Each structure stands twice: as C-alpha cells, then as structure tokens.
C-alpha cells in the first residue's frame, strides 16, 4: 500500500470509554460509557465539532495522577489538552456536562464518593471558567450515556428510569 | 500474583465454596454447588467489566464485609436467573415471578446473606488464627442496574482504591444445571493482607 492509499484517520463512530479513561473524537461520531458512582465529564467545543469524555472515578489524585482520567483534578486538564490536540488548536472554548455520581450502595458514612466526584469537578470547571450547561447527577442508579460529537448533546439512560437528553 | 499465592488463595476459596454449596443446598432444598471459577488480579477497567457490558439490567445483592477479611461481596444474576431463584425459594413453578416485588427481593437478599456468610466464614476458619475475628457482614442491599454500574459500585466501595484488584468469582449450579448467577468477592487492602502472607501479596493491592 502506498502512502497515498493510506486512509486518513477517522473518528470511531462508536467509542466506549472505560473506567478511568478519556475518549476524544472530532468531526462526527458518538462517545459512550456507563457510570455508577463515577462521573462522566463531557467537554464539547461546538465550533470545532470536538468532544471529550472522561470517566472519572475519584475526586483527587493526591499526587498520583495516572491514568489522568481516573481523578477529577487531572481529568479536566487532560481532557482539555487532548481535545485541543485533536482539534489542532492551542486553546478551545468549551462547555461541560456532568453525568453520574450515584450512590450505588449506602454502606459508607460521610459524603458519598459519587457526590465528592461531582463537587470536585464543579470546582475545577469553575476555576477554569468552563460553564456547566447540563447535569444529571446523584440518585442511586447507574447511567448509560452517549455523547454526540457534532452537537454535544448527551443522551442519558438511567437504569429502570427512562432516557433524558442534555442539549 | 505468584503461583504460591494463587494456590493458597484457591485452596481458601475452595473451602468457602464447599461450605456455601452446603448452605445453598440446604436453603433451596435441592442439590446446589458453588465452584471457584476464577481467582485473579485485574486492572480496574477490566474488573469493572467482569459482569459483562450488556445493555440489559442485572439484579444483585451486595454486602459490605468487615472483620478478619474485609471487602465487598456481591451475588449477581441476570433477571431471569434471579427471578427463577426467587420462584424456587418461594416454592412456585419456575416462571411465576415476572417482576421484582418485595417477596422476590427478600428471597434473593436472604440467599445472598446465607451463601455469602457461609462462604466467608469457611474462609475465616481455614485461615486459622488470622481469621479468628470472623466476619461482620452488613445487611445485604438489593439493586437492579447496568452490569458495569454494579461492578463500578463494588469497586468504589473499597476504602483504598488501587489500580489492580483481587477478584474471586464463583459460579452456581442448581440440580446440576449452570445458573446465570455469580458470587464476586472483592477484598479490601486489609482483606488481602489477611488472605495472603506478606511475601505473597499481589503487587498493587
């Protein structure tokens, strides 16, 4: 195969993001994940049709930081960096959506880890001036979500409770 | 995990499965066996997928375990297997239960309690002095959710989250027939320390 025959990189039309990981796509396609107590952080740059999805598990890395998608304090910056890289920009104007942070089991006392994740992400996004334009958080059920890379719309199915879309 | 550690742990979990089999058979009033399907250390992202990634819901009962071997125990099944188990316990023809009412939930919760405690008590007994404190289980919690969300909940319950987790999976047979039902035990850091001598600790757990 000659270089001319090599097809240009295409965004995957279906891209499932595992726990602690970050997925980014530009142009078109859908990013998907399931979350329970974890929080799905969605960053979207409408002007560049670019979306990033981080499956955040814990509020703070406490200096560990790998994989960066696992922790709220490293996931925001890394998702933003990957999004800029994918869009070929130095910086991007983004909006954010948050989904998840459920309390799956009520065994632990104190603030549930899911709620801590949401609070940490809200604080970090606020510090960076990234507006949160939609959220479906809390409760006690897991959620399946799909992010439309073009529009940034997030379709969220909550277990046993139907489907909503964050536009 | 070293081979020695694996052998030691497998032997311990076989003790657990044997006692849990007896308890389940007595509870159901028919032949039932649990066998250790797999004992492994997994990266968290793989552990989160051990229940599969089906878009349909599963049911489960979770118990937080404290004491000599701490961790979280989960009895999970697909809906059909869970409802069939409830029918057996409620002495109804299989297929009678079609939804998760209070009775069906109670039947499965009690099964998790009996089987889970028998399983872990046997492991404690096999540990000798290290297991002398026994286990302190929480009341089981019933849930019905996406498989990955259920496992995520299990993983998030651990006080210290590492990138590698030790996971024991057990399969069920009732009347000699495999049942789409599984028992997962995820020991916490203290639980791993009790289950393995220091030289045999799996890296990262």
Distance between the termini of chain A: 43 Å
Percent strand of chain A = 25-35%
The largest beta-sheet of chain A arranges its strands as 1-3-8-9-10
Q: What is the third-level CATH name, the topology of chain A?
A: 60s Ribosomal Protein L30, Chain: A
Secondary structure layout:
The complex is a heterodimer of chains A (167) and B (205).
Chain A: E1 14-16, E2 22-26, E3 30-35, E4 39-45, E5 50-56, H1 72-87, E6 95-100, H2 113-128, E7 132-137, E8 143-148, E9 154-158, E10 162-166
Parallel strand pairs in A: 1-3, 6-7
Antiparallel strand pairs in A: 2-5, 3-8, 4-5, 4-6, 8-9, 9-10
Chain B: H1 3-28, E1 32-43, H2 44-47, E2 58-67, E3 71-78, H3 79-89, H4 102-127, E4 135-137, E5 141-145, H5 147-156, E6 164-174, E7 177-187, H6 189-195
Antiparallel strand pairs in B: 1-6, 2-3, 2-4, 2-5, 3-7, 6-7
Helix pairs in contact in B: 1-4, 3-4
Task: Name the descriptors.
A: 167 residues; alpha+beta; 60s Ribosomal Protein L30, Chain: A; five-stranded mixed sheet; 34% strand; globular; disordered N terminus; B: 205 residues; Chemotaxis protein chec; seven-stranded antiparallel sheet; 6 helices; 41% helix; disordered C terminus
């Amino acid at each position: 195969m000659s270089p001319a025959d090599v097809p240009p990189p295409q965004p995957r039309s279906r891209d499932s993001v595992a726990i602690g990981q970050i997925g980014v796509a530009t142009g078109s396609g859908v990013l998907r994940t399931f979350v329970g107590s974890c929080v799905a952080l969605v960053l979207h740059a409408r002007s560049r049709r670019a979306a990033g999805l981080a499956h955040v598990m814990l509020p703070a890395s406490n200096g560990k930081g790998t994989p960066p998608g696992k922790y709220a304090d490293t996931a925001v910056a890394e998702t933003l960096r990957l999004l800029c890289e994918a869009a070929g920009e130095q910086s991007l104007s983004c909006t954010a959506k948050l989904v998840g942070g459920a309390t799956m089991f009520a065994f632990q006392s104190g603030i549930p880890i899911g709620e801590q994740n949401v609070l940490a992400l809200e604080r970090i996004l606020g510090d960076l001036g990234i507006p949160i334009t939609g959220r479906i958080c809390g409760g006690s059920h897991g959620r399946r979500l799909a992010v439309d890379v073009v529009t940034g719309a997030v379709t969220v199915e909550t277990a046993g409770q139907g489907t909503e879309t964050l536009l | 995990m070293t081979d020695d550690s694996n052998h030691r742990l497998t032997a311990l979990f076989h003790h657990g499965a044997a006692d849990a089999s007896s308890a389940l058979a007595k509870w159901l009033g028919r032949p039932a066996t649990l066998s250790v399907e797999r004992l492994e250390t997994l990266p968290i992202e793989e552990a989160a997928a051990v229940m599969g990634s089906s878009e349909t819901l599963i049911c489960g009962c979770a118990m937080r375990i404290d004491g000599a071997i701490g961790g979280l125990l989960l009895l999970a099944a697909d809906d059909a297997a869970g409802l069939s188990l409830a029918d057996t316990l409620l002495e109804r023809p299989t297929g009678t239960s079609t939804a998760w009412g209070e009775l069906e939930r109670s039947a499965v919760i009690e099964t998790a309690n009996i089987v889970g405690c028998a399983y872990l008590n046997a492991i404690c007994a096999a540990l000798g002095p290290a297991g002398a404190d026994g286990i302190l289980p929480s009341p089981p919690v019933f849930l019905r959710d996406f498989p990955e969300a259920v496992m995520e909940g299990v993983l998030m319950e651990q006080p210290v989250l590492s990138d590698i987790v030790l996971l024991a999976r057990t399969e069920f047979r009732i009347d000699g027939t495999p049942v789409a039902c599984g028992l997962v035990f995820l020991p916490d850091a203290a639980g791993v320390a009790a289950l393995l001598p220091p030289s045999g600790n799996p890296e990262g757990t």
